[in-house]
Design brief:
Length: 370
């Protein structure tokens, strides 16, 4: 897919912006704090209705303003789509071709993007919560039903935790209600676990071969799903359901004592291995960065596989961080098939040869000129 144009109103430091006729490769050049990331972020938000940098939507609205608007035309295989997203303290409104969508989940996925930004290193180095967020964002983008189960699960989890907090000393009288929450938690939890497993298996396949390419065949990258209960390889929903239920029964006393749910997809993790060694613990900085990069590039292929079209690639400040060999690998792999937006503080840091045909934009104080 291809973003033809974009307009922003009161989005971060953009009071008013209209950009037309984007190319296959678009370079956004500018000094620090001018609005380069904000522009990539706006494209990302239009795709996922959430920022990659913050969970607080009000930060996206320009200072002193009460609403923000992002709009773009996206060329897709079956024709163009006009996408509109309005942000305000009351919430978000999304339109496809002028038609307001009842649920945001019906809007998400109209535009698909893959962003690679410096903070993605945290997917490898950071806490399990960051890896779960990565999984949730990526799976949700290609499977709206995943988001439905995730939202339900999170709602039930809160209710169940509240109940557990009140249960101390009155286990018997609350058991009936707990059984109901268990049933619902497990029902949605199992769907989430299965979809995560399937996603990780597919991601593994692409990430392994891409990582091989980037490292000239010297590094073998493996991904491993670490569920909070049961066997990582178990696929069957009925078996998972049973295992989750048994785990909750085993944990009950402990859960009541601690007032929280101790097993389920909200406690899953994902680990990475290079040549059999855990990257988070033993990997060098460069290996960690390359692992994150391989994951992101794998996602591009995965999205293509799932939806039949390549997503748009957003590279924030990362190209200039890579050595020339890796830059070349990256650009050559995707130049002809994936529309790309690249930010950098200066054109000299980029492998200019490979970017001959790029559109170049200069970003300065919330304005963009060519
Ligand atoms: P760098 O090269 O340092 O990454 P950048 O060009 O990517 O810089 P951005 O992250 O896009 O910079 O931010 C540009 C400016 O936007 C910052 O000065 C920041 O203060 C400002 N900004 C952030 N949020 C808002 C907002 N809600 N309203 C107005 N301005 C904002
Ligand atoms: Mg930036």
């Amino acid at each position: 897919m291809f973003v033809k144009n974009i307009s922003l109103q009161q989005y971060r430091n953009y009071e008013q912006l209209r950009m037309d006729s984007f190319g296959d490769v678009n370079l956004l050049i500018g000094s620090n704090a001018q609005g380069k990331t904000n522009l990539l972020e706006a494209i990302f938000v239009l795709a996922l209705t959430k920022s990659h940098r913050t969970s607080k939507d009000r930060e996206l609205i320009a200072f002193e303003q009460t609403s923000a608007h992002i709009s773009a035309t996206v060329e897709k295989k079956y024709g163009p789509l006009t996408l509109d997203l309005m942000l305000s303290p009351q919430g978000k409104k999304a339109k496809i071709n002028g038609l307001e969508q009842r649920k945001l989940s019906e809007f998400i996925g109209s535009l698909n993007v893959v962003m690679f930004a410096p903070e993605d290193l945290e997917i490898v180095k950071g806490t399990p919560g960051i890896r779960r967020r990565f999984l949730d964002m990526e799976i949700g983008q290609v499977q709206p039903s995943y988001l439905f189960h995730l939202q339900q699960y999170q709602k039930i989890l809160i209710q169940r935790n509240n109940l557990l907090k009140q249960m101390w000393g009155k286990e018997a009288s609350s058991q009936g209600l707990l059984d109901i929450w268990n049933e619902q938690l497990v029902e949605h939890g199992v769907k989430i676990i299965r979809k995560r497993k399937q996603f990780i298996v597919k991601l593994q396949k692409w990430a392994e071969s891409i990582h091989h390419g980037i490292t000239n065949g010297t590094e073998d990258l493996q991904l491993r799903y670490v569920p909070s209960f049961g066997e990582a390889a178990e696929e069957d929903e009925a078996v998972l359901f049973e295992q989750f239920m048994i785990k909750l029964t085993q944990l009950k006393e402990q859960e009541v004592r601690r007032g929280m749910t101790l097993a389920g997809p909200h406690r899953d993790d994902l680990t990475f291995y290079i040549n059999g060694k855990e990257v988070q613990t033993y990997g060098s900085q460069g290996q960690q960065r390359t692992t994150a990069l391989s994951l992101k590039l794998a996602e591009i292929e995965l999205i293509q596989e799932e939806i039949g079209e390549y997503p748009v690639l957003l590279l924030d400040d990362v190209l200039s961080e890579l050595d020339p060999y890796r830059q070349t690998q990256l650009i050559e792999t995707f130049q002809s098939k994936v529309q790309t937006f690249i930010t950098a503080t200066g054109i000299e840091s980029l492998n200019a040869d490979k970017l001959k045909n790029a559109n170049i934009y200069h970003v300065h104080a919330g304005q963009v000129g060519s």
